[in-house]
C-alpha cells in the first residue's frame, strides 16, 4: 500500500518502451541485434544519410498489432509522425514515431488480482543510437567527446502508455510484471529490463485523498528493475508530499533515478522543453489494417497470462491468485494436461510451484500424472518423488522404471513396525516424551528409521505408525 | 543534335559507339561550360567505364538497353556512389554517397552514360539557379539571363546541346520552369511514378524526379526507363504504369482540353499568354476540343506551398548537423557545433525556408499555418478532380515570363511568383510537363504547360507530341 502520510494519495502513470524482437530494424534491412561491435548493423537508411528513405518492416507492424490486441486495444488506421529535435545519436535529427493517430488505442492490462489497468495507447516508433559521453560528468553538455553507436538506431519499439490510474508502487510493479509476461507469451519482445529491451518511465504526482485533480507530475527515468521502480515511485511521491506540505510545489520536469543514492535528481525542465513540431511523415503511407488482418492476428494469438490463469484455476479448482506462479513459469499447460490425465490437482500444483522452478524440461504430462499417482499410492516417499521428478525433467522417461532403477521400492509396514520396536526399545525416554505430545522428538525416530532403510522409508508412513502407536499406549 | 532515341539506335546497331558519344559530350562541355556553368562535377571515369561496357555488350551481341550510350546529366541532389553529391551546398562539400539513387541504377541498367552532376539552387530552393554555393548557371540562349531553377544546370545542359537528356527534380516547378526558360521539354511525373530513393529530399510530399529532353519522344523514352515501382520508396506507386512511348503519335482528336482561367491573367506576361492561346489553337486544329475552365483554388497554391514545402524542408534538412558527414565547424559542445556548422554551411535562402518551416510547424501556430495549408492542398486536389470530370487534360503557361536577367529578382517574393503556374500540380500530386512553343517578344523561349490526372502520363505525352509537331510547323 501507499507509503505516504495519511491523507495523501499517489497518482502513477507508466510509459513502457519495448524493443520488438524482429529480425531486422523498423525501416531498413539491418539486423536488430543487441551486443554486436559498434556501427556494424548500419546502412544509409538507419544512418539517415541524405537521400535515404524508410520502408516499414511488415513483421514489426504485425508484432505491434499483436501486442495491441494482447493489451485489449483497438487496432486503428494509423500514421507515422516526425518528432523533431537535435541529438547526435538520432541520425535524422527527428524520430519517426506516431502522434495523433497511433496504431493501438484504449486497452487494458488485467492483473492477477483481477484489477484492470487502463492503457491509453501503444504506438510504434524507432529507437535512437547509443551515446557514450567522455570527460566531464558523463552527460552531453560537459563532455569533451561523444562516441555514438548507431546499431540500435532504427530498432522497432512499441511505447505502451498507461492511464494515470495507479495509486501505489506495488500496483505499478504488478502492472509491469504482467506486461512482461504478456510480451513473453506473445513472443514480440524478450522484455529484459536490465538489457534495456524493456524500459519503464514513471509519471508520478500526488494529491489529497478523495480529490480527483491531477497535480504537477514528474517523469522519472533510468529505472532498470522492478525493485527500482517501486523505490523510485515511493521516493518521488514522498518528495512531492514534502514539497506540498511545505507550501511549495514540484516543477514539471524529467528526473533521473539514482539507484545507489536511493533518490531522484533533477534533469531537464519541461518548462523550457523543445517544441517537437510533430507532423505526419511524408515518406510513409498510413498503416491501414483490414478487418481480416486483425482477425488473423487474433486467430494466431497464443494464450495470454490472464486467460491462462483463469483456465488453470478452473482445472485445478483453486483461486486465480494461486495460479500466478505456475502461469509465470509457463507450466499451466503441463499441469492442466496432467490433471486431465488423472493427476491429483493439489499435488500437481504443489510440484509446479515447489519443484519445477526451472521449467518442465523433458517432463511430459503423462509421466507427471503417473508420478503424482505413485506418490498418492504411497509407492514413493516425497523425497523419492523429488528425485524421480528431477530425473524426468533432466532426461525424461517413465517414472516407475526410473524409481525401480534407483532402487526406490515401497517398504512393507510390518518391516517398519519391527524397526520401530527396536528404536523405541533403545530410546525409552524419547518415546515417553513423544507419547506425552512432544513432537520435537519425532525427528529422532524418523531419522533412525531412514538411516536403517537408507532413505527408502516413506516419512509420512513412519509418522502415521508412530502416531497410531502413541494413541494406543 | 542527334536525339537520344536515334543515338541509342545507332549505338545498339553498332554504327556509332557509346565511347564516341561520351567523348563528344565531354568535348562540347569543355568548349562552352565555362560560360554556362551547367556542371558542378564531371564523372569522366565512371562515364568511360560505362560507355566501354555498353560498346562491349553490343560487340557481344547483347542488348545494352533503350538508352544505350546516351550521355545524360544528373542534378546534383541525386546520389551517385563515390561521386560528389552536393545539392549546391557548402554543407555537403566533400561528401561522397556510398550508394546510387534508384534512377541512377535504372539509367545505367538501360545503357545510359552519366557524364556529370549539374548545378541547382541550394537544396533545390529557388527558381533561377542563382542560389548555388558554387556560382550561378547561365541561360544558353542568352548568358545574361538565368536558366530558371532549381534544376537550371540540367535544363541548361540540354539547352546548350551538351547532352540529349538530363534529370531534374521538381518540387514546385523546378523542372518545368527551367525547361520553359531554356527551350527544352521538361516533365514532372505523377507523385510516386519515379522512385525518390537517393534523391536528397527538399519537400518529400512534393518532390518528383523527371527528365529534360530536346524533344517529347526522348522525354517519353527516359520516363519509361526511370519510372515504375521501387520497393525502396514506400511512396512509390505499386501498380504498373502505362508506357508512354507506344501511344506517343496517337494524336489529340476528340480530346477535351481545359485552359486554366486563373493562370491566364494577372501576373502572366502578355507574350506568354499569346503563345499559350496559339498553342490552344494548334491543339484545336489537331482535333482537340479546347475550352476555358476555372479552378479557383489554384490562386492559393503559392501560399499553401510556401508553408508545406518549408515545413517539410525544416525537418528534412535537420540531419545536416555536422555529426556524421559533410562540413563540420567545431563548437564548445555538440549543440554549439550544430549551430556553427549550419550557420556556415547553409546559404540565406535555405536558412530563410528552414525558419519559415520551423515557424509553420510550431506549437500554437500549426493549425493556422501548416494545418490550413494542408486543407488548401486538399481543396486544390478536389477542384482538379472536378475539372477532370469534364476534361481529359488541362493546360496553362509554364512560367509567367521568359528568362530574366541575373540579379533581376532580388526580392524573394518576386522569385517565388515564378512558380505560380507549376505549384498546383505538385500540391495535387498530378503529372505536368512543359513543351517549348515559340518565343516571347524578347526572342527567348516560351513553354506551354500540359497537366493530366494521376498516372495519365501517356495521355499527356500525346498532347505534348501534337503541340511539338505544331510548333515545328510554325517555324
Quick overview:
Chain A has 473 residues and is α+β, with helices and mostly antiparallel strands. Chain A has 15 helices and 14 strands.
Backbone shape of chain B: globular
Main interface: chain pair and counts: A-B, 33 and 45 residues
Q: Give, in order, the helices and strands of chain B.
A: HHEHEHEHEHEEHEHEHHHHEHHEEH
Strand content of chain B: 5-15%
Question: Architecture of chain B in CATH?
Answer: Alpha-Beta Complex
Rg of chain B to the nearest angstrom?
Answer: 21 Å
CATH superfamily of chain B: Amidase signature (AS) domain
CATH topology of chain B: Amidase signature (AS) enzymes
What is the number of domains of chain B? 1
**Discrete helix count of chain A:** 15
Describe it.
The complex is a heterodimer of chains A (473) and B (475). With 473 residues, chain A is α+β, with helices and mostly antiparallel strands. Chain A folds into three domains: 8-298, no CATH class; 303-405, no CATH class; 413-472, Orthogonal Bundle (Arc Repressor Mutant, subunit A). Chain A contains 15 helices and 14 strands. Chain B is α/β, with parallel strands linked by helices and 475 residues long. Chain B has a single domain (1-475), classed as Amidase signature (AS) domain (Amidase signature (AS) enzymes, Alpha-Beta Complex). Chain B is built from 15 helices and eleven strands. Chain B has an eleven-stranded mixed β-sheet with strand order 1-3-2-4-6-5-10-11-9-7-8, sandwiched between helices. In chain B, helix 8 (270-285) links the parallel strand 7 and strand 8. The model of chain B has no long low-confidence stretch (mean pLDDT 97). The chains are: A alpha+beta (473), B alpha/beta (475).
Amino acid at each position: 500500500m501507499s507509503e505516504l502520510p495519511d491523507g495523501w494519495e499517489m497518482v502513477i502513470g507508466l510509459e513502457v518502451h519495448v524493443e520488438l524482437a524482429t529480425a531486422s530494424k523498423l525501416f531498413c534491412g539491418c539486423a536488430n541485434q543487441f551486443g554486436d561491435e559498434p556501427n556494424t548493423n548500419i546502412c544509409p537508411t538507419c544512418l539517415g544519410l541524405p537521400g535515404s528513405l524508410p520502408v516499414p518492416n511488415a513483421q514489426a507492424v504485425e508484432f505491434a498489432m499483436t501486442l495491441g490486441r494482447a493489451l485489449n486495444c483497438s487496432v486503428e488506421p494509423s500514421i507515422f509522425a516526425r518528432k523533431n529535435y537535435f541529438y547526435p545519436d538520432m541520425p535524422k535529427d527527428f524520430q519517426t514515431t506516431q502522434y495523433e493517430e497511433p496504431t493501438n488505442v484504449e486497452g487494458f492490462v488485467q492483473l492477477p488480482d483481477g484489477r484492470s489497468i487502463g492503457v491509453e495507447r501503444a504506438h510504434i516508433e524507432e529507437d535512437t543510437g547509443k551515446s557514450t559521453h567522455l570527460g566531464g560528468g558523463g552527460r552531453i553538455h560537459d563532455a569533451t567527446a561523444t562516441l555514438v553507436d548507431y546499431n540500435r538506431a532504427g530498432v522497432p519499439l512499441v511505447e505502451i502508455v498507461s492511464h494515470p490510474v495507479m495509486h501505489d508502487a506495488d500496483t505499478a510493479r504488478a502492472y509491469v510484471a504482467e506486461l512482461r509476461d504478456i510480451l513473453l507469451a506473445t513472443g514480440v519482445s524478450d522484455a529484459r529490463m536490465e538489457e534495456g529491451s524493456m524500459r519503464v518511465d514513471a509519471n508520478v504526482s500526488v494529491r489529497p485523498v478523495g480529490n480527483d485533480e491531477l497535480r504537477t507530475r514528474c517523469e522519472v527515468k533510468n529505472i532498470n528493475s522492478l525493485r527500482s521502480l517501486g523505490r523510485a515511485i515511493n521516493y518521488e511521491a514522498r518528495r512531492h508530499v514534502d514539497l506540498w506540505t511545505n507550501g511549495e510545489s514540484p516543477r514539471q520536469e524529467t528526473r533521473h533515478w539514482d539507484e545507489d543514492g536511493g533518490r531522484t535528481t533533477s534533469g531537464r525542465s519541461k518548462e523550457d522543453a523543445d517544441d517537437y513540431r510533430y507532423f505526419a511523415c511524408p515518406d510513409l503511407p498510413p498503416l491501414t489494417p483490414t478487418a481480416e488482418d486483425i482477425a488473423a492476428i487474433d486467430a494466431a494469438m497464443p494464450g495470454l497470462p490472464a486467460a491462462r490463469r483463469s483456465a488453470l484455476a478452473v482445472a485445478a479448482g483453486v483461486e486465480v491468485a494461486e495460479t500466478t506462479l505456475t502461469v509465470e513459469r509457463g507450466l499451466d499447460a503441463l499441469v492442466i494436461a496432467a490433471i486431465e490425465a488423472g493427476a491429483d490437482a493439489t499435488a500437481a500444483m504443489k510440484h509446479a510451484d515447489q519443484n519445477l522452478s526451472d521449467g518442465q524440461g523433458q517432463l511430459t504430462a503423462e509421466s507427471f500424472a503417473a508420478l503424482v499417482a505413485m506418490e498418492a499410492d504411497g509407492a514413493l516417499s516425497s523425497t523419492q518423488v523429488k528425485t524421480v521428478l528431477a530425473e524426468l525433467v533432466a532426461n525424461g522417461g517413465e517414472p516407475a522404471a526410473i524409481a525401480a532403477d534407483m532402487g526406490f521400492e515401497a517398504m512393507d509396514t510390518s518391516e517398519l513396525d519391527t524397526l520401530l520396536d527396536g528404536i523405541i526399545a533403545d530410546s525409552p525416554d524419547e518415546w515417553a516424551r513423544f507419547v506425552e505430545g512432544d513432537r520435537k522428538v519425532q525427528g529422532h525416530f524418523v531419522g533412525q528409521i531412514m538411516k536403517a532403510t537408507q532413505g527408502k522409508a516413506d516419512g509420512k508412513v513412519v509418522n502415521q505408525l508412530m502416531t497410531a502407536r502413541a494413541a494406543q499406549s | 543534335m542527334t536525339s537520344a532515341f536515334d543515338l541509342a539506335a545507332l549505338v545498339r546497331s553498332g554504327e556509332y559507339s557509346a565511347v564516341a558519344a561520351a567523348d563528344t559530350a565531354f568535348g562540347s562541355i569543355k568548349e562552352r561550360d565555362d560560360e554556362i556553368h551547367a556542371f558542378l562535377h564531371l564523372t569522366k571515369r565512371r562515364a568511360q567505364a560505362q560507355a566501354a561496357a555498353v560498346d562491349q555488350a553490343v560487340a557481344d551481341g547483347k542488348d545494352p538497353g533503350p538508352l544505350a550510350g546516351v550521355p545524360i546529366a544528373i542534378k546534383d541532389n541525386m546520389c551517385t556512389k563515390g561521386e560528389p553529391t552536393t545539392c549546391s551546398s557548402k554543407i555537403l562539400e566533400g561528401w561522397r554517397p556510398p550508394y546510387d539513387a534508384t534512377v541512377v541504377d535504372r539509367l545505367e541498367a538501360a545503357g545510359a552514360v552519366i557524364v556529370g552532376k549539374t548545378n541547382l539552387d541550394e537544396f533545390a530552393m529557388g527558381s533561377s539557379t542563382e542560389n548555388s554555393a558554387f556560382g550561378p548557371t547561365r541561360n544558353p540562349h542568352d548568358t545574361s539571363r538565368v536558366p530558371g531553377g532549381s534544376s537550371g544546370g540540367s535544363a541548361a545542359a540540354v539547352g546548350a546541346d551538351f547532352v540529349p537528356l538530363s534529370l531534374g527534380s521538381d518540387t514546385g516547378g523546378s523542372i518545368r520552369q527551367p525547361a520553359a526558360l531554356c527551350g527544352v521539354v521538361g516533365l514532372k511525373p505523377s507523385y510516386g511514378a519515379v522512385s525518390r530513393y537517393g534523391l536528397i529530399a527538399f519537400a518529400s510530399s512534393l518532390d518528383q524526379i523527371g527528365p529534360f529532353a530536346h524533344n517529347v519522344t526522348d522525354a517519353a523514352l527516359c520516363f519509361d526507363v526511370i519510372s515504375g515501382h521501387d520497393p525502396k520508396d514506400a511512396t512509390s506507386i505499386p501498380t504498373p504504369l502505362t508506357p508512354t512511348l507506344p501511344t506517343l503519335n496517337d494524336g489529340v482528336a476528340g480530346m477535351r482540353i481545359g485552359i486554366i482561367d486563373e493562370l491566364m491573367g494577372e501576373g502572366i506576361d502578355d507574350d506568354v499568354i499569346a503563345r499559350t492561346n496559339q498553342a490552344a489553337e494548334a491543339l484545336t486544329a489537331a482535333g482537340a476540343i479546347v475550352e476555358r475552365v476555372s479552378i479557383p483554388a489554384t490562386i492559393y497554391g503559392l501560399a499553401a506551398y510556401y508553408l508545406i514545402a518549408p515545413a517539410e524542408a525544416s525537418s528534412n534538412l535537420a540531419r545536416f548537423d555536422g555529426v556524421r558527414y559533410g562540413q563540420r565547424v567545431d563548437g564548445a559542445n555538440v549543440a554549439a557545433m550544430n549551430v556553427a556548422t549550419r550557420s556556415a554551411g547553409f546559404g540565406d535562402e535555405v536558412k530563410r525556408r528552414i525558419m519559415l518551416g520551423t515557424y509553420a510547424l510550431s506549437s500554437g501556430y500549426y493549425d493556422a499555418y501548416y494545418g490550413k495549408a494542408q486543407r488548401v492542398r486538399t481543396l486544390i486536389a478536389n477542384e482538379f478532380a472536378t475539372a477532370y470530370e469534364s476534361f481529359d487534360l488541362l493546360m496553362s503557361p509554364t512560367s509567367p515570363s521568359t528568362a530574366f536577367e541575373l540579379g533581376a529578382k532580388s526580392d524573394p517574393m518576386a522569385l517565388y511568383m515564378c512558380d505560380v503556374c507549376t505549384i498546383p500540380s505538385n500540391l495535387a500530386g498530378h503529372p505536368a510537363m512543359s513543351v517549348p512553343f515559340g518565343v516571347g517578344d524578347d526572342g527567348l523561349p516560351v513553354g506551354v504547360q500540359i497537366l493530366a490526372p494521376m498516372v495519365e502520363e501517356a495521355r499527356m505525352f500525346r498532347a505534348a507530341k501534337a503541340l511539338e509537331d505544331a510548333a515545328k510547323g510554325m517555324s
